[in-house]
Amino acid sequence: MARIIYGVWDDIVHDNRGLGPFEIPEDPTMQGFDEFNQGNAIKAFFGDRGFFVFEPNVSLIDALWRYIDKAASESCGKCTPCRMGTRLIRDMLDTLRRGEGTPALFDEIEQLARQIRMTSLCGLGQTCTVPLLAALDHFRDRLVEEAAGSAPEQYGMDYVTAPCIEACPAKVNVPRYIDYIKDGKVAHSLGVILQKYPMAATCGRVCVRFCEMACRRNLVDEAVGIKVLKRYVADMEHGLSSKWFSRDLICTPQPDHLRVAVVGAGPAGISCAYHLLLRGYPVDVFEAKDEPGGMAATGIPSYRLPKDVLRSEAEIVERLGGQLLYNQRMGRDFSLDGLFERGYKAVFLALGCDQARMLGIEGEDASLTGCFTGIDFLLKVHDCLQGANCMTLDGPTVIVGGGNVAMDCARSALRMGASEVHIVYRRAEQDMPADHEEIEAAREEGVIFHFLTVPTRLVSEGGSVTGVEIVDMQPNGTDDRGRTIMIPVPGAERVLPCKGFIAAIGQQVDKASITGEDGIGFNKWGCIEADRTTLATARSGVFAGGDCFSGPSTIINAMANGLKAARSIDDYLHFGRVRFFPRSRMRKIINDFKVLSKEWIETPVENKYRVQVKELDPELRRRLFKEVEEPITTEEAYHEAGRCMRCYRIYSVITESSVPESAH
Asked: InterPro entries of this UniProt entry (predicted)?
């Protein structure tokens, strides 16, 4: 734990300058501030809510100059206080840190800093002078003392982010791509997204919107429609990616012997292959099915994600020169050892989780007519829409589960002919892991929900499902993790008649793809064991990501894993190890210290409610697999982009020695 010599954070002043180094108490909240990288001590930390100094020889003037210099370079220039004020303050601090100014400059700096804080139009300007003003208010004596000489050379790094960026698993620069929409530069906006992953149109339709949950606009009215804006730019420039992506885009091809195998053409595998190809590596993608997309292709219905959209984005891999090898299942058509014997120098396992789990209740039998797992049912729906092995449902259908797969099964069952669809979920509605919008869409289409209810027995007759026995549940204390323990209500059993029964309670990795000789371990949850930072497995040269590593998750998480794996593989092939990544270290500090958790600037913001996305009428759409959500117009996109408050924040560390550079 670090010892705070002096500083201010959230208006709380720390001043231990009169104490000896070992008299200063260690602050338990400052865990993780001892060193930035191995052997490189953190001497000071600056952010939007103040600053801390941990070493006596830190030049406060120089550190503040660095911080304001970063703010000046990041200013969008749309308001005068931030555009001009930050540059003026930067230049005055530069004069002072070189010992050429007089203490009277501090009064001028303070006046400008307060004006910037109170009158800037975005989060960057409203917060960038907070540490400077804190220093002027409480430690001006230190600044005046330092101004009498010249500042020593200092090391460190600056990091610019926003709550929405930190919430996004792929760390997409959301305010930047929204800025480009406001400027009418749609292609530039798409380019910002494509820096992180190739499936912008896909993600713009099915992303679970972690960024919107973190959006500071929630404290005013409603979150900015980040997802719909992403879809807007991807659809507007749908033909541009085919022009952008070709082998000509790769400036420095890697030698052919550094070939990489990617196992699985789902979002994680496609993302990894995409980033490796852009780095010049020859890449082959092995896919067990006859089409790309993984569970996104077979598990997400067309009314949410049209298949041609997903397919066109997955094919970017081929346009960049990679190979997509279909009907190639690991464990059946090739082995991990076999890939290395063929000459591949690294392998990324993106196997997904395509094995469904049964409930294990009395009477459950996969051979019964009308009995499905969620994954199997969605696969049958997918095949039917592709013109193969079509099926229909007749009568009521019951789905067990509370995630997005359960919602997809319910809405698809209606479209496949079910007269009624019931969802049975063991906890309350607010506990459902499914996206709230998906729950509401299912309800609008007529799906009936049974909360605090579990199935206990599947009823059948003549080899066909005829009903499911369910029982109501009630709370009975909490477990070790703080979750409510649910127990059956005595005498509350009843039979819900149905002809279709779908268990949509989760998926798992197909362990038949990996043998004991492969040197790959599984954790207690049945997922491949890999380092959370590098995604490296126990076997040298083998990395794993996506659902087979994390368990069933989201497309954006999978694509973020693909990017991380590509970086790790790049380092492994060139250096034999994964290098230190300074931006990841800064993100860990921000997350561990929770510097984004309480921030809010009390600047009046005009209420502007978000654009309401038009949808097909529920009575019509429940019979069709046509895409439910309609695209927004350019006028609506401009309005929605204008709601972004550009909540950029700057964080800075001063370190003992220089921070290692990274090409990532």
From this structure: DPD_II, FAD/NAD-bd_sf, FAD/NAD-binding_dom, NADH-UbQ_OxRdtase_51kDa_CS, Nuop51_4Fe4S-bd, Nuop51_4Fe4S-bd_sf
Contact of 621 with 303, CB cutoff 8 Å: yes
Task: Quickly state the pLDDT bin for 599 (edges 50, 70, 90).
Answer: low
Domain 248-355+509-583 has CATH 2.40.170.20: no
DSSP letter at 267 equals H
Where does CATH 3.50.50.60 sit in the chain?
248-355+509-583, 358-505
- B/e letters for 58-80, b = 16+ CB within 10 Å, e = fewer, are bbbbbbbbbbbbbbbebbbeebe
pLDDT digits (tens, 9 = 90+) for 60-107: 999 999 999 999 999 887 888 888 999 999 999 999 999 998 999 999
**Do the strands 507-508 and 355-356 form a parallel or antiparallel pair, or are they unpaired?**
antiparallel
- In whole angstroms, what separates CA 639 from the centre of its chain? 25
Residue of 447, 309, 304, 448 lying closest to 378 (CA atoms): 304
Side-chain-facing half-sphere of 655: CA atoms under 13 Å: 22
CA–CA distance, 34 with 41 (Å, rounded to integer): 6
Separation CA 640–CA 211 (nearest Å): 15
C-alpha closest to that of 649 among 79, 32, 180, 50: 50
pLDDT at 586: 94
CA distance 262 to 271: 10
Rounded Cα gap, residues 113 and 140, in angstroms: 14
Q: Give buried/exposed letters for 423-453 (b at 16+ CB in 10 A, else e).
A: bbbbbeeeebebbeebbebbbbbebebbbbb
> pLDDT of 385-413, one tens digit each?
887 778 889 999 999 999 999 999 999 99
Nearest to 456 by CA among 447, 466, 474, 468: 468
Hey, what amino acid is at 533?
Answer: T
Q: Which fold has domain 6-162+648-655?
A: de novo design (two linked rop proteins) (1.20.1440)
Helices 555-575, 267-278: axis angle to 10 degrees equals 40
pLDDT at 248 over 90: no
- Interacting residues of 144 by C-beta distance below 8 A, sequence separation 6+: 103, 106
Is 229:640 a contact under the CB 8 Å cutoff?
yes
Nearest Cα residue to 310 out of 201, 226, 409: 201
pTM: 0.92
